[in-house]
Write a structure and sequence with these properties.
mainly alpha; 3 domains; two-stranded parallel sheet; two-stranded antiparallel sheet; 30 helices; 4 strands; VanZ-like domain-containing protein; VanZ-like
Length: 794
């Protein structure tokens, strides 16, 4: 980053003749201004994309205003099956970046009140935009108008806002770091992380996730889980070869970038990338429409090895002359360009069944010139659209790199002229591809494709020129961008406010399980929502604070039972103030022992709540163990306390229960085995939430991969454990249903179908996981622990 020259001291005529230094614009202020300008430009561009993409293919059909209003008032929530699961996720993901960048644009003030107001403004604006788009789609068939899109997009906006609160400052530093990279090694590391993120994200599309053993079995039975390599061949040999070739090529950049970072030896890099390919195939088991094939592990390993070999041939940090020789001479570059051009034309023009009759060409030309941009991507699945975009950009990106390298080797004439020639050549090749597709019946020549191909080629040129320019620049010091200091209690207050708004909104959404809606008192819903939000923050957040406090202070492990008891007592009083008493009695049962006041209900609740307390405290200790050695000692004490408390909890809650509302939900009426399965499922959820909180608490700089992997693994692991512990067949109210259906369905009259139940479980699990991580993030993580240790030392 270029260092700004220091402003001269200006003379102030209003002073007593003395020169007073004026306020200087420092680098932090300049960086903040540039970041806001970039985010503002990005926000306007993405908003235009959202609006335009929601109205494609722009088939305007006028309707009377009153008729449109009447139609919009009657829009309904559609019961979608597995085929529309990806549509729901796509609508969520569409509004996540929208809210994220707009909140970042308005985030410049350090006043907390302004940031809260900006958060609410962005949420309301995104919701209003979603409603406006749905209303406008009435005039643009064949767009579908439904409440599903509004709910999904509002949820996406909330997720985007929450992400900015959690990682907004880290993203800002990451963006500024791109502009301040010191050399090719630093740039390669950043590109590697971005490329792997893109690779993992693409391979779990279209996000029609499933953890149902039945669906996974059907997927295997239909041949979409291939365990023996090279046995999933296609009938067409050319298609089979193209599949193998692309599977190898997509891992070549990962090998090149990982090797250029020079952090590990080549063997470790190759093993890590092979493990990443295996992880992708494992994750694809849970993506219903994707094919899991062990062949992809081998092709990924081969592509990584090729990339590592290429990086060794062209090491970053060597003199420019040696690197030029490593790449090869001019004739070698020309040969590489010709080979890549042959590959591009072979891929985009296959199977070469050209037609030259005039009527056909006229119809094709008319169709290509009258088609609106992005219209061709609307007719198909989201996965297909993303595949085609990456297909166009990906094949032209290496071409841009090769053309830029060739332009850099030519010494005659001004360099800018050859750069323009490289950019123009990319456009000519892309235009030739699209013109050739006019003659091919199975292809579609499209202006959007031409723009995407040019964008891919120009991006390759820009990257090559950026790397080459680094070798001619002097070594610069990367500016240190200080990490912001956040008060955990300020974050907790914002979390409580956000939870209260969500809980209050949940009472008006009929799809929310009725057991959740009834937790909000109808007499004072606002106060009840606020108190229940405080209870949620306490239930999830206190174990993390206590675990950190115990492991960084002078407290002895014997204090752990006191913290467990305090956790349950405060949780009781918060829930007692927020939820109606009959809802608490539905869980712990009405009093039957004639004890005074509410002591029996308190005792039964604390006994039941102790199950969550022990698993959440243990998850906190295990997460802190990574950077606090003292936590290991508390794990032993926690293990002993858990073994002592579990029998007591089982006896009080199951054997001597005051109601069968809980025991009937457990398989076999609540055997010790099923009780332990439920405890294991809760522990998986608590541990995943704590690991994710540790990553968030460190600004996604420490433990990120561990947190993400635990979060992903918790979905199937917790589900399988709870499925083993819950009853599958309950006969009650004249109906047959499962424990999952009772807990997650909309109401007793609308028990969820298996597919809907799976979606509801995934949403509930993700919501709880996010709530746990958000509640514990201020108290877990590397940064929080270092700060707490310093306070105790002082």
């Amino acid at each position: 980053m270029t260092v700004m020259p220091e402003m001269p001291i200006a003379y102030n005529p209003h002073s007593a003749g003395s020169a007073q230094p004026q306020r200087k614009s420092g680098p932090d202020e300049k960086n903040s201004t540039e970041t806001r300008q970039f985010l503002l430009l990005l926000a306007f561009a993405y908003t235009a994309f959202v609006i335009y993409g929601s109205l494609v293919p722009l088939h305007f059909q006028p309707h009377p205003w009153e008729e449109a209003r009447a139609f919009f008032r009657d829009i309904r929530y559609l019961n979608l099956g597995i085929g529309s699961r990806a549509d729901w996720v796509a609508n969520i993901l569409l509004f996540v970046p929208l809210a994220f960048v707009w909140l970042g644009t308005l985030w410049h003030s350090k006043i907390v009140g302004w940031r809260i107001a900006a958060t609410l403004l962005v949420l309301l604006a995104c919701t209003g935009l979603s409603v406006a788009i749905e209303f406008t789609q009435i005039f643009f068939p064949p767009r579908t108008v439904s409440l599903n899109d509004i709910y999904a997009e509002t949820l996406g906006a909330f997720i985007g806002i929450s992400l900015w609160w959690v990682i907004g400052s880290s993203v800002t530093r990451w963006y500024l770091g791109w502009r301040a990279v010191e050399g090719p090694m630093d740039l390669a590391q950043r590109l590697l992380y971005g490329y792997l993120f893109l690779l993992f994200g693409y391979n779990i599309l279209p996000l029609d996730l499933t953890i149902s053993p039945v669906e996974i079995y059907h997927k295997w039975h239909e041949g979409r889980i291939v365990l023996i390599p090279f046995t999933n061949g296609q009938a067409d040999l050319a298609q089979q070869f193209y599949g193998f070739l692309t599977d190898v090529l997509i891992w070549v950049p990962a090998g090149v970038l990982a090797s250029l970072t020079a952090r590990y030896d080549t063997k470790r890099i190759w093993l890590r990338l092979t493990a990443a390919a295996a992880m992708i195939e494992f994750l694809q088991i849970f993506v219903y429409t994707r094919v899991t094939d062990t062949t992809d592990i081998l092709t990924g390993s081969l592509g990584s090895a090729i990339g590592i070999w290429l990086a060794i041939r062209w090491r970053a940090g060597e003199p420019a002359v040696k690197q030029a020789k490593a790449v090869g001479n001019t004739s070698g570059l020309i040969a590489g360009i010709l080979l890549w051009l042959a590959l591009i034309f072979a891929v985009f023009w296959y199977p070469f069944d050209f037609r030259t009759d005039g009527a056909f060409l006229h119809s094709r030309l008319t169709e290509a010139t009258t088609r609106v941009p992005l219209a061709i991507y609307y007719f198909g699945t989201e996965y297909r659209a993303v595949t085609e975009v990456l297909h166009k950009i990906g094949f032209f990106f290496p071409l841009g790199i090769l053309l830029a390298l060739l332009a850099g080797k030519i010494r005659s004439g001004p360099p800018s002229l050859w750069k323009m020639a490289a950019l123009a050549s990319t456009g000519i090749v892309a235009g030739s591809v699209e013109v050739g597709q006019l003659f091919l019946p199975g292809k579609f020549a499209d202006l959007t494709d031409w723009v995407l191909e040019i964008a891919g080629g120009w991006a390759g040129c820009a990257l090559a020129w950026r790397i080459m320019s680094m070798r001619h620049q002097r070594v610069r010091t990367t500016p240190v961008i200080p990490a912001p200091r956040h008060s955990p209690w300020l974050f907790a207050g914002g979390l409580v406010l956000g939870l209260a708004l969500l809980l209050l909104a949940a009472t008006y959404i009929p799809e929310v399980p009725y057991n959740v809606r009834k937790l909000i008192g109808q007499e004072h819903p606002v106060l009840s929502s606020l108190a229940l939000a405080c209870a949620v923050a306490w239930i999830f957040g206190f174990p993390a604070w206590a675990a950190r406090h115990l492991t960084t202070g002078s407290q002895r492990p014997e204090y752990l039972p006191a913290y467990l008891l305090l956790h349950g007592i405060v949780a009781w009083f918060l829930l007692r103030m927020s939820a109606p008493l009959e809802m608490i009695h539905k869980i712990v049962g009405s009093p039957i022992l004639d004890w005074p006041w509410e002591w029996e209900s308190i005792g039964r609740f604390i006994s039941l709540f102790a199950l969550w307390s022990v698993v959440s405290f243990g998850a906190g200790f295990i997460s802190l163990r990574s950077w606090l050695p003292k936590a290991s000692g508390f794990i032993w004490v926690w293990s002993v306390a858990t073994l002592a408390l579990l029998p007591v909890i089982y006896i009080v809650v199951i054997r001597y229960a005051a109601t069968d509302n809980l025991t009937e939900l457990l398989a076999g009426g609540g055997t010790p085995k099923t009780f332990l399965w439920v405890a294991a499922g809760l522990f998986m959820l608590a541990l995943a939430g704590a690991q994710l909180a540790g990553a968030l608490g460190s600004g996604m700089r420490v433990g990120t991969m561990r947190g993400v992997l635990w979060s992903i693994a918790s979905f199937p692991l917790a589900y399988l454990a709870l499925h083993a512990g819950f009853e599958s067949y309950i006969i009650k109210y004249g109906q047959v249903f499962s424990a999952f259906q009772f807990l997650l369905s909309q109401d007793r009259a609308h028990y969820a179908t298996p597919m809907e139940l799976l979606l509801r479980y995934g949403f509930a699990h993700g919501t709880l996981l996010f709530a746990i991580a958000a509640s514990q993030a201020p108290f877990l993580g590397h940064n929080a622990c270092k700060s707490n240790i310093a306070q105790h030392q002082n």
